[in-house]
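Dear Dr. V.,

Thank you for agreeing to look over these. As mentioned in my earlier message, I'm a first-year student in the group and I'm still getting used to reading structure tokens, so any feedback on how I've presented them would be very welcome. I ran two proteins. I've put each sequence directly above its structure. The first is here:
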Amino acid sequence: MKLRSGTSRDVEIFTRLVNEQHQWLRGENLWEVDELAAILISPTAEPADHDRYLEVAGEPVAAVHVHVTAPYDKGTVSLALPPSADRAEHARTLIEAASRIVQTHRHVTPNAKLQMDVPGEDGELVAVAENLGFRPIQKTTILEGDILDAPAARWPADTDVASFSITRDLADGYVVVREAFPPRLGGWHLSEEDYGYSTQNDPTALPGLSLIVRDSNGPVGVALNFVDTTKESTGLVGILGVLRRRQHEGIGRAMLLETFDRFRSRGWSHARLATVLGMDLDDTDYGLFTSVGLRPIYDNLAMVRGVF
């Protein structure tokens, strides 16, 4: 068994490994190669520094990608871990390799944590993580719904909605993303650098899918939408955010319903999105999402431990 650093040529390998894992667990692929390339190769994710591949007899059998970005208090671990007789050992080896990557990062803070999202039904990996000192702090729920009969959007009178334009709306979109998803342990956060790169380079971010909402004072909402590559005829609501000063006014619901209309215009029948909840919350806490017909289908556990 040999551990090696990643290269820019390894995206196809990582894609194959992670899709084998998700086919085994959920009967569907997780990524397309060009879609994953926008994540594995970016200004903040050099493969040689952030990826490790585990080889047996010269063949890659598992891999890990680690993402560390401002405020540098967390390293996010993504495992590609197909089923095998030695899967638990592979998991331990890669998780400890990920910890070393974060420990040696030049900007990481002394109180940094290692965070790993684990499919809730993957009992083997949950057990390995717990034995290595991880504890679940949140869950990310993937929701899905049939959108063919969704009603039309109704907007507050003082708002204006438009198609999100990369050239025109990139900065305004991040104003909303930054406030709606601030950096915090366990929570989802996207740095401005990664936001700009992924928005401009993700091949599933088709023109006309995403929305920007403004009022007389500036941007108040954004919905960044994509092709969902895990299921045919499905759109993905990747980011849905509303400024605090305009929350609870129906803007989020209107963005979802307008998004569904744009998905239908492409012949798609379903939508998916992911939302983060505390471990003590249950299916009754999905509120807005269940009110527009989305239902939980999978849970990923956010598991955390100290790095040092």
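The second protein is here, in the same arrangement:
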Amino acid sequence: MKRRIVRVNDRMQRDYRYELTEPAGENFDPRFKPELTPGQMLALGVFGGRYMRDCRDEFPADWFATARLHPPGAPGHDKRLNCFGVDASQSLAVWRAKGWIHPQDPRGWFQWYCRYYMGRRSEDDDRQIRRWLAMRRHVTQIQANCAPGDLACRKRQRQAVLHWAYDARQL
């Protein structure tokens, strides 16, 4: 694979650059096995459609072809755009207060995942993969408390695990 430098200039990052060192969607850490691609997540409806509206140029256009996005410039987010129609997000202010935001990815885990999926590898990979692995406890809770295929059971928790690339529709 030919290495490529990505330059980022959007509302949350100016003059940020990173290198793609792996082919898109390949050579993931063996512990990290997401069930959904970033494009699939956006098409299903995540983060109330608010996420990634101003940074489309950084990622493949096909990720946004069927993405459920809140109109540009509209305030807030719309839980109706989420796959399960519920709000399962915490604000960016909460994420920052809890120390979940790394400076290279000011939008959080999903931004890290999008860039990792595209082929960026960084010093933050291990931390983010451990956070992804910790979400498995929510998958286990859904499985323990819901009949298989009952998508009305624990909708908020299902939406939350969907935000972490677990396919909550299959639980």
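From my reading of the second output: The CA atoms of residues 46 and 163 lie 6 Å apart. The chain is about 30% helix and 5% strand. Does that match how you would interpret it?

Kind regards,
E.
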